[in-house]
Amino acid sequence: MNAIDNSKMQANDISLGDLMSILSSAKDSPLVFYYDGQPVKPGYHVTEVKAGQFSALDCGANPEAWAEIFIQLWDIEEGDRTHMPAGKFHAIIHKVTEHVKLDDTAKLTFEVSDGVRPMQLYCAAMPVLRAGAVHVELSPRPASCKPRDRWLAEQEASSCCGPSTGKSACCG
After folding, report:
1. What InterPro entries has UniProt attached to this entry (predicted)?
2. 46 Cβ partners below 8 Å, 6+ apart?
3. Strand ranges inside the chain, DSSP E
4. What is the pLDDT of residues 1-29, one digit of tens each?
């Protein structure tokens, strides 16, 4: 089976290890997730952390296998709570690792709902420390066609200068 190479994630699709590494250096800072152009409410909860090993057949009949970690955020207002400190989030994930094997390189997906709207899937960009808080931008996780994605990656890798200029030498 072809395993997805998680080391080639895009900037808007970080791994759990990347997230935890940054959070460990800013444990006292509030952790604010953003989705759909808005920050999560200060009372948000981490309601579930789960790890999965997936095996599938893509639309080109290619077998695929990958690890994925899902972190569920419940975006609610609750009393006078403030945004969770990065250290508390870090401790929650650490507690999960005592019971569930989490692969630091696994694809990371956030499931977010306000308890009214259906849960939506998001990928996370690299956290940014700004104005005393850790900011993590979540963007909708789009569907993709893996055979097409591989073909596009091959095209990009074989073209060192971008679109063909008709010259036999590349960038020369």
Report:
1. DUF6428
2. 71, 72, 73, 84, 89, 92
3. 2-3, 31-35, 38-39, 45-57, 63-74, 107-113, 120-124, 128-130, 133-140
4. 444 444 344 456 899 999 999 999 999 99
Calpha distance 122→87 (Å, rounded): 22
Confidence band for 160, pLDDT divided at 50, 70 and 90 = low
C-alpha span between 136 and 32 (Å, rounded): 6
Eight-class DSSP state of 15: B
pTM listed for this prediction: 0.82
For 27-84, write each residue's pLDDT tens digit.
Answer: 999 999 999 999 999 999 999 999 999 999 999 999 999 999 999 999 998 888 999 9
Q: Cα–Cα distances in Å, from 35 out to 30, 119, 127, 141?
A: 16, 12, 13, 11
